[in-house]
UniProtKB/TrEMBL annotation:
Keywords: ATP-binding, Cytoplasm, Kinase, NAD, NADP, Nucleotide-binding, Transferase. Gene3D superfamilies: Probable inorganic polyphosphate/atp-NAD kinase, domain 1, Probable inorganic polyphosphate/atp-NAD kinase, domain 2. This is NAD kinase. Signal peptide: none annotated. GO terms for molecular function: ATP binding; metal ion binding; NAD binding; NAD+ kinase activity. It is an enzyme of class 2 (transferase). NAD(+) binds at residues 47-48, 121-122, 151, 159, 162-167. It comes from the Bacteria.
Length: 262
């Protein structure tokens, strides 16, 4: 990362008045580098928009995706820095780098079509109709759960473990733990199964049982595939995404604190 004087920043914003206003003010003050030439992207919005920006950086086909520095102009802002206009180049240049590996989803539809997508937070399977889904879960070629009757299930990265995974009562995973969270969504049978922590090297395969009667969709961040027959999920170590945080924010500490939140 270049020093503050040489840093080229590209600004992106969510489609809200608050975010657009912030972008206009910052572009007027700091300029706006073309996306393909930027050293960092400054994302203005909420956590969802930050994920969109990370995906956009992947699509540029650079050797490494552009680091993203988020500032909160949305609602939750768990992945974002505080919004301040002063000394922005200095803040970005001095930011801590947090490296993330997304999940790769390979979904096979009932008609045989295969769809691949990356999920930075999680890959989730969700029932499509009023009837519960029936899933078989295999880990590294061994069937671990022959039948799970549920609303769905998800695999979360450590960075995503505080999002949908936490809402589904899954565990919060420290960034350097080297594990993925496998969490059921409203499990009916077996009632007492609360999920599992798996090595980050694991390959998780979901087979959809009674797919005609109980259709299931698969979602990797913003990619939804309906009427799936099988979904394979594994960590994609060949892709590294970089988030930038102010040193006082300390993203690992923020995740740790979430485990003791009231």
């Amino acid at each position: 990362m270049p020093g503050a004087d040489a840093l080229r920043m590209a600004f992106a914003c969510a489609d809200t008045e608050e975010a657009r206003t912030a972008r206009n003010r910052l572009v007027h003050r700091y300029g706006n580098a073309p996306l393909g030439e930027a050293d960092a992207i400054v994302a203005l919005g909420g956590d969802g928009f930050l994920l969109e920006t990370l995906h956009r950086g992947l699509s540029l086909n650079r050797t490494r995706p552009i680091p993203v520095y988020g500032m909160n102009r949305g609602s939750v802002g768990f992945l974002l820095n505080a919004y301040r206009e002063d000394d922005l180049a200095e803040r970005v240049a001095a930011a801590q780098h947090v490296h993330l590996h997304p999940l790769r989803m390979i979904a096979t539809r009932v008609n045989g079509e295969r769809v691949e997508a990356l999920g930075i937070n999680e890959v989730s399977l969700l029932r499509e109709t009023r009837q519960a889904a029936k899933l078989r879960i295999t880990v590294d070629g061994i069937v671990r759960l022959p039948e799970l009757i549920c609303d769905g299930a998800l695999v979360a990265t450590p960075a995503g473990s505080t999002a949908y995974n936490l809402s589904a009562h899954g565990p919060i995973v420290p960034l350097n733990a080297g594990v993925l969270a496998l969490t059921p969504i409203s499990a009916f049978r077996p009632r007492r199964w609360r999920g599992a922590l798996l090595p980050h090297t694991a390959t998780i395969t979901f087979d959809i049982l009674e797919e005609g009667k109980r259709p299931v969709s698969a979602v990797a961040d913003f990619t939804e595939v309906r009427e799936v027959l099988q979904v394979e999920v594994r960590e994609c170590r060949s892709v590294t995404l970089t988030l930038l945080f102010d040193p006082e924010l300390n993203f690992e500490e923020r995740i740790l604190k979430e485990q003791f939140a009231p």
